[in-house]
Design a protein that fits this description.
2% of the residues lie in helices and 51% in strands. By secondary structure, it is mainly beta.
């Protein structure tokens, strides 16, 4: 899990040996992990209408990019294959996609979280979910694609069912802003948990959560 930031946009691992990060304006730069040399630049050539690159998610040959103008662009290699605008959002800054690339989720500074279908690279809106208070920093799907966690500006982490987007729980034990969240990829034997949720807070503390493990293992 890469937590370094470039102008609010996290670095993203690409094809195991490359890193993606924000470039100038709406571009995205790709660097070699081995040599740190720039390999290529993903340039949408849209006259800055996308705004800044806010978040990137790579799966195999595909890269899903969320831009400030509430647009998600799908790249394959260095070519755009589709894009979709989410009209209910404001300043899109959080994005994730399930491992089978069938559905994705995005959010920003408004009180709306949008989910979308992915069909052969084409994006279409699924639904808009309203939350109590505005602002989502990060969206993170659990590795089994059953639960999605949202790090919100109101100091909470909301957990939703990925299948129904029903709100399952609100983790509200954080006294400062939640900056990042991550799930463990493997079982954590020390706590006998299949998946652990790590929450990084603005006060430099990390909290670990064991939630919805036994229920999902039954």
């Amino acid at each position: 899990c890469w937590v370094c930031l470039v102008c609010f946009c996290k670095l993203a691992l690409y094809k195991t040996n490359m890193l993606l990060c924000k470039g100038e304006k709406s571009t995205m730069s790709c660097y070699s992990i081995d040599t740190y040399e720039k390999i290529t630049v993903f340039n949408p050539h849209q006259d800055d209408s996308l705004g800044d690159l806010m978040v990137a998610k790579s799966i195999d040959d595909y890269v899903f990019c969320g831009y400030e103008a509430n647009i998600v662009v799908v790249w394959r290699e260095d070519r755009i294959i589709n894009q979709c605008i989410f009209l209910e959002l404001e300043c899109l800054m959080a994005l994730d996609v399930d491992h089978n690339m069938t559905k994705g989720i995005c959010a920003g500074s408004s009180n709306v979280i949008s989910t979308f279908y992915i069909t052969k690279g084409n994006l279409s809106l699924d639904r808009n979910i309203k939350i109590t208070n505005p602002g989502v920093n990060v969206l993170q799907l659990r590795p089994d694609d059953k639960i999605v966690a949202a790090a919100c500006w109101d100091l909470t982490v909301r957990l939703f069912s990925w299948k129904t987007m029903k709100l399952l729980a609100v983790l509200d034990s954080h006294s400062t802003g939640v900056l990042n969240i991550a799930y463990s990829e493997l079982s954590v034997t020390f706590w006998k948990a299949r998946y652990m949720l790590a929450v990084a807070n603005k006060d430099n503390k990390i909290t670990l959560w064991d939630v919805y493990n036994k229920k999902d293992n039954d």
